[in-house]
Amino acid sequence: MTEKQAHHTAVNSFDQNHSDYHxxxxxxxxxxxxxxxxxxxxxxxxxxxxxxxxxxxxIVEIAAGTGKFTKNLVANGWADNLTxxxxxxxxxxxxxxxxxxxxxxQASSYAIPIEDSSVDAVIIAQGFHWFADADSLKEIxxxxxxxxxxxxxWNFDDTSPSQDSQAAESKFYDAGSRYFxxxxxxxxxxxxxxxxxxxxxxxxEVTQYIYGFDVNVPQYRxxxxxxxxxxxxxxxxxxxxxxxxxxxxxxxxxxxxxxETRSYITDLGDEEKQKIKLHVEKLIEAYxxxxxxxxxNKTRLIKPMGTHTAVLTVxx
Length: 316
Prior knowledge:
Order of helices and strands: HHEEEHEHEEHEEHHHEHHHE
Strand order of the largest sheet: 5-4-3-6-7-10-9-8
Number of strands: 10
CATH superfamily of the domain at 8-180 and 218-249 and 306-313: Vaccinia Virus protein VP39
CATH architecture of the domain at 8-180 and 218-249 and 306-313: 3-Layer(aba) Sandwich
């Protein structure tokens, strides 16, 4: 049987745009990353509320890209017990420049070059939607120790089926949003984020316009990654959901550059990308208001953002 391969659109687009991806995509805030590491049994909190990281625990990070998430692990002390798996040649090139001393190999979720039952946690940042299938789960399960954890994390731009869980069963963190304290944390999490993202109309309009181009590729927002766990035998039932809310202050001129790093936009021709760019700029002009900016010169737009973490326990 032929080994399943990483999604060609993801690999090809990230081979092309890895440099811009690293420049224009947001970081992952420790406000939610550190609690995620606690939920993955990789850290604890002391009596003063400080995080203590157990760097003897072995981690595999799959689809690490340029190292946006890895940066947190390295800052918390991981080095020898961290292995990076990345299928894109371009992304791996950028990663090795950013982290020359971290072990990184070109591979995918379908063939992880790690021994059976040898790692404490597998972490996937901004990538699981590309390979959310039974073959990946089987392979991830294989390398995890009994009761090992799978941690997923995404930054996201709008409400979607991926947030189809109950607020009362989730954790929320204020990672620096002027809208956090006015949000009603009740009902379904999709209702919570509808309120949150409605605070900036310009962002909603641009986001929904760009989303119209992603119909043919897997994306976090489609929510299909949640469905794979419903009939799965490799991980125990139940997803622990946590969310952080923050405001990304983005230079007006860089809004297009942010969206151009999306795989389904990178894959388009130059002429079509130019048309999309012009329309994005028109939408910003049409829907921006005085309270859309974080500075008096009106150069930095306020873009509400969310970060979602999901934790699962291996079933072995």
